[in-house]
Amino acid sequence: MTSRWMQMSWAALRGTMTILVTLLGLLLLTFIIGRVMPVDPARLLVGEDASQAAYEQAVVRLGLDRPVPEQFLRYVGDLLQGNFGISLRTGQPVATDIARALPATIELATFAVLIGAGLGIPLGVIAAVNRNRALDHIVRVVTLIGHSMPIFWIGMIGLIIFYAMLGWVSGGGRISDYYIGLVPEVTGFLLIDSLLAGDWDVFWDALNHIVLPASILGYASMAYITRMTRSFMLDQLSQEYVTTARVKGLSVRQAVWRHAFMNIRVQLVTIVALAYGGLLEGAVLIETVFGWPGFGQYMTNNMLIGDMNAVMTCVLIVGVVFVGLNLLSDILYRLFDPRTR
């Protein structure tokens, strides 16, 4: 028992050290990005027409007159205190801006990954079971289209067809203008906040706005999840234990879902987690097309004007999200597969 606890403690220590080293490397990377970008934060702060004295004051204020190692240590110290700097574009703390924008992207990405995983996993299993048949070819063509077509193009076509022509969904934005501010902001997730407030008009309007961009993102995610699920299932269906299960009298459905599918759950956890992380940081194009006030649009707008405080924080958050999702998938890996324990 003591040996087992020592092994578990050592594994936990190694995992913690790996995460810390990864985050430290990410901090260093974001700092280097902020320094090599051809942007002068001090000049951006005071403007092109400011005097030399005002410019030098801005340099001192931003700490750019100090040695680079000292700047990095100050940067890390500020981050540990939750100070991400002031956005040069909005004039507000970057943390405040991101806290306002990030829930919109999380809501969109969560809706999308539910669609992607909810459709992609069953389609992948069905395609594998019907390998090289008509149904398999149809699924493969649908997923190929999802991989091949630019997502911003699909978004624009979706707006033209489902909004402009058919009127089935609402247009750009997160909610109609006349509903803005009617629901108290409790969680930052508009669908949840409208339910908590019991305002069904706001809820249905928000749902009508999110369904099209989330479906398009979900389609791209579904294409990836379907292909990976099909690949995993084909490998399992070729194993002898599936043949043995069929010989013993189990139906195809039982052999597929109770045996083969149970053995790919672990891989699917990782695939869905990575797909979700990709949606969080890759929703930039869809947010731009639909005018969605989320994290991706915030990062893009600040990148265009060289607001490095905001850009560096956004890069750091994306890295932390992926590290966190990988850690979560490892934990779920151990829960689902006793062999890894």
Kindly describe this structure:
It comes from Devosia sediminis. This is ABC transporter permease. It is found in: Cell membrane. Its main location: membrane. This protein is 76% helix and 0% strand. The chain is mainly α and 341 residues long. The protein folds into two domains: 79 residues, no CATH class; 239 residues, Orthogonal Bundle (MetI-like fold), CATH 1.10.3720.10. The mean pLDDT is 81.
Shape: globular
DSSP helix fraction: over 70%
Mean pLDDT: 81
CATH class of the largest domain: Mainly Alpha
How far is the N terminus from the C terminus? Answer: 14 Å
CATH architecture of the largest domain: Orthogonal Bundle
Largest sheet: none
Structural class of the helix and strand makeup?
mainly alpha
Number of domains: 2
Poorly predicted sequence stretches spanning 5 or more consecutive residues: none
* CATH T-level topology of the largest domain: MetI-like fold
CATH superfamily of the largest domain: MetI-like
Q: Evaluate the radius of gyration.
A: 24 Å
DSSP strand count: 0
**Order of SSEs, N→C?**
HHHHHHHHHHHHHHH
Summed up, the helix count is 15
Share of β-strand residues: under 5%
Summary of the model, kept short:
Belongs to the binding-protein-dependent transport system permease family. By secondary structure, this protein is mainly α. 76% of the residues lie in helices and 0% in strands.
